Amino acid sequence: MDIKDIYTTSDITIMKDAEDSLNRKNDRIQEIIEYAKISKIKSIGIAHCTSLSKQANILSQILNKEGFTVEQVNCKIGKIPFSDLIPNYEGISCNPAGQAKYLEDKKTELNIVLGLCLGHDMIFNSKSKAPVTTLIVKDRKLKHSTINLLNNYE
Q1: Of 6, 24, 51, 143, whose CB neighbour count within 10 A is largest?
Q2: Average model confidence (pLDDT) for the chain?
Q3: Cα→Cα distances 116→8, 54, 70, 122, 151, Å
Q4: Closest by Cα among 28, 96, 38, 39 to 62
Q5: Are residues 32 and 112 in contact, defined by beta-carbon separation less than 8 angstroms?
Q6: In degrees, to the nearest 5, what angle opens at C-alpha 35 toward C-alphas 44 and 4?
Q7: Are strands 80-81 and 132-136 parallel, antiparallel or unpaired?
Q8: How confident is the model at residue 4 (pLDDT cuts 50, 70, 90)?
Q9: Ramachandran region of residue 122, left (φ > 0), alpha (ψ -120 to 50) or beta?
Q10: What is the Cα–Cα distance from 133 to 12, expressed in whole angstroms?
């Protein structure tokens, strides 16, 4: 199979822009900013867990200062009762598909995941029309520092 049969033109552009924005002296937020600038992205979405609202606000401020339009959406958008999805469950469900739809309606060109739960991140990624990158994965035990878990397996 030819490599060009695997990757779309859009995929190749993303890969090239990511490579062009690479600077080993930059942290992940700086990498995202450089990537977005090289890609001529103007609007960035942040899909976050409600428990990381403070961090989402800080990230929004950073991106705004860099000239981007930022749209935030927390995981409880739409306030779906669990019982509507799973019988005998109580409470309000997260709504990763709703987060993706909200950011699609806002016409974001790049979406950042900030601490969505396992599974919810998968649904968000599959439903997002814009490319998605993850800044923080949810890891309650390790306070979102999953690399420490892997370092302990050496």
Answers
A1: 51
A2: 92
A3: 28, 14, 18, 9, 23
A4: 28
A5: yes
A6: 105
A7: unpaired
A8: confident
A9: alpha
A10: 16
pTM check: above 0.85: yes
pLDDT, residue 28, reads: 94
The number of residues making up the chain comes to 154
Residues of the chain with CATH 3.40.50.1970: 41-151
CATH code at 41-151: 3.40.50.1970
Tokens 């739809």 label which residue?
101
| Contact call for residues 83 and 90 (beta carbons, < 8 A) | yes
- The CA distance from 89 to 34, in Å, is 43
Nearby residues of 32 by Cβ (< 8 Å), 6 or more positions away: 44, 110, 112, 133, 135
Which H or E run contains 121? Answer: helix 120-127
Is residue 144 over pLDDT 70?
Answer: no
pLDDT tens digit sequence for 107-133: 999 999 999 999 999 999 999 999 999
- Residue 113 bridge partners (DSSP): 47, 134
Residue 98 Ramachandran class (φ > 0 left, ψ -120 to 50 alpha, else beta): alpha
